[in-house]
Design brief:
With 96 residues, this protein is mainly α. It is built from two helices and no strands.
Length: 96
């Protein structure tokens, strides 16, 4: 076959970029936080129905509780990630 020669790709061409890995980790963490919030909302629902509240009221309060848990857990996750990034920058930065 004739034609221009195609150079081989660099050896690290298939390695995931650091940003892509960070995005994948962040998506996994967000999924975990959401699952935690859903379980907390379900627990709230079951607890309220055991107390004798109507089903619809328990569903509404469970959803509100799940929303608040999701917001709080996301804020804690954000603070944790920022602190970890700051520690990593301090470790890798050259001494002054």
């Amino acid at each position: 076959m004739s034609g221009p020669a195609v150079p081989p790709p660099p050896s690290n061409a298939n390695a995931p970029r650091p940003n892509a890995r960070a995005q994948a980790r962040l998506a996994a963490l967000r999924t975990g936080v959401t699952a935690f919030a859903v379980l907390a909302g379900l627990s709230c629902y079951f607890f309220l129905t055991q107390l004798g509240l109507s089903g619809w009221l328990a569903v509404g309060l469970g959803l509100i509780f799940a929303l608040f848990v999701r917001i709080a857990a996301t804020a804690l996750l954000r603070d944790w990630l920022l602190a970890a990034a700051r520690r990593q920058r301090e470790r890798t930065s050259p001494p002054r």
